[in-house]
Amino acid sequence: MPMPITRRTFLAGMLSTSALALAACAVEQQWVTLGTAQVNLRNTFTIIPVTVQQGLFTSLRLQVSGSPVFINSLVVNFVSGEQSTLAVNTAIPAGGQTDPIFLPGVVRAIKLIQMNFRRVPTGGSATVTVQGSRI
User: Fold this and answer.
1) Among 51-55, 86-90, 112-116, where is mean pLDDT lowest?
2) Among candidates 34, 52, 54, which has minimal Cα distance to 101?
3) Stretch (H or E) spanning 119
4) Comparing 14 with 72, which gets the higher pLDDT?
5) Does the structure show a pLDDT above 70 at 14?
6) Which residues, in sequence order, are CB contacts of 130 under 8 Å at separation 6+?
7) Average pLDDT of the residues in 83-93
8) In 97-112, which positions are buried (b, 16+ CB within 10 angstroms) versus exposed (e)?
9) What is the C-alpha to C-alpha distance for residues 17 and 9, in angstroms, rounded to an integer?
10) How far apart are CA 19 and CA 25, in angstroms?
11) So what's the pLDDT on residue 53?
12) Sign of the CA dihedral running 114, 117, 119, 124
């Protein structure tokens, strides 16, 4: 038999729900533009340098304007000298963006990002903006 909800139980539930909502707002991501590249779709990659002053990041996302782009992967070089290849394998439409792409580790300082994309025989160009998330 289910237990009846008392006023005390109801209020405790409401308070815990409010606390969770406040905690979620407190860790809302702050997106910072790390760099923008004019992508020639006759090539297969481009490099975006990132300055150390940009800070420490937990994830990346890509925004595209102009033509759609199919991103194969990102090779992220960190200030520590480590390198990580992040599989993206996503077609991003013009005006679209990716979901967050999480970086390995807790927080990382990024030195440069190599964006590998699918070559389009007809060419074209797109503008790809890389943003990093700081908590």
Assistant:
1) 51-55
2) 34
3) none
4) 72
5) no
6) 33, 34, 35, 36, 37, 48, 50, 60, 61, 62, 113, 115
7) 95
8) ebeebebeeeebebbb
9) 12
10) 10
11) 75
12) negative
Beta bridge partners of 92: 69
Chain-centre distance for alpha carbon 1 = 47
By the 8 A CB rule, do 129 and 63 touch? Answer: yes
Range 47-74 burial, b when 16+ CB lie within 10 A, else e? ebebeeeeeebbbbbbbbeebebebebb
Q: Which residue has the higher pLDDT, 108 or 86?
A: 86
- Residue 120 per-residue DSSP state: -
The SS3 assignment for 15 reads: helix
Distances (CA, A) of 40 to 86, 94, 118, 121, 123: 21, 14, 11, 11, 7
Query: Tokens 């405790």 appear where?
Result: 12
Q: What is the pTM of this model?
A: 0.74
Confidence bin at 27 (pLDDT 50/70/90): low
